[in-house]
Amino acid sequence: MISFPSILNNTQLKIIAAISMLIDHICVVFFAENQAAFIVRHTAGRLAMPIFAFLLVEGFFHTKSRLRYGVTLLVFAVISEPAFDLIFNKAVIEFSYQNVLFSLLLGLVMLCLIEKINYSSFSYLQYPLIAGFALLVWFLKTDHDISVIIMIAIFYYFRWHSVTLRSIFGCAAAALISGTPGTLLAVIPLCLYNQQRGRLNTFGKYFFYAFYPVHILLIYIVTYVLGYAQFAIK
């Protein structure tokens, strides 16, 4: 297996993912018909989701309170939904497509249930459980739906293998399911992960949660002021 230098910590991966997500949303809202923007979106804009799924699993193992972790995701998912609906669904509240924090929240709930089942006499149920959550996110139409659940499951089951191995398997599965080969590019920053948290105070801890609704709302304000039409995610 190729050895990569361990130079990126948890916080730095979050920064890369946040920038990638911002690029993705700018491209889809302002440059939906531009071919160059399409390429940028499906390369640089495809790093975010695998990194966030990967870090969710890391957080699952290292958080002091999984309940607080889940509640935080729920709160920011609810806060983010109006801005998400405004820019992508053209309504303040609309239920045909939900933001990605709901996908991550359901992934976290799935991991909690898998762990409970895994240490019981019903351990064989963990695989049907994954399939059930995959169907649930598909039914609820949460952003990135099934690919998020599969990535989280793979990152969880390969937790004790090398970062390189779990990154390759997780990103490859997501690329196949979503039909976006650019997702494989996330393997590069993930393979550079040094498994260190990085310095992060309380403000910084919640900054990455707040970044999601805030940047979407700011993009919407710009579209409103400049008279841009909103575009649905493709």
* Average pLDDT number: 90
Query: Beta-sheet strand percentage?
Result: under 5%
Distance from first to last alpha carbon:
36 Å
Q: Helix and strand succession?
A: HHHHHHHHHH
Instruction: Give unreliable regions as ranges.
Output: 229-234
Number-wise, the strands total: 0
User: Which term fits the overall shape?
Assistant: globular
Q: Biggest sheet, open or closed, and with what strands and sense?
A: none
Rg (CA only): 17 Å
Helix count, DSSP H or I runs of 4 or more residues? 10
| Oligomerization category of the chains in this entry | single chain
Counting helices, strands and paired strands, the structural category is mainly alpha
Helix content: 55-70%
Description:
This protein is an all-alpha fold and 234 residues long. The chain is built from ten helices and no strands. The protein has helices at residues 10-30, 35-41, 48-62, 66-88, 100-118, 126-140, 145-157, 163-178, 187-191, 202-226. The radius of gyration is 17 Å and the shape is globular. Residues 229-234 have low confidence and may be disordered.
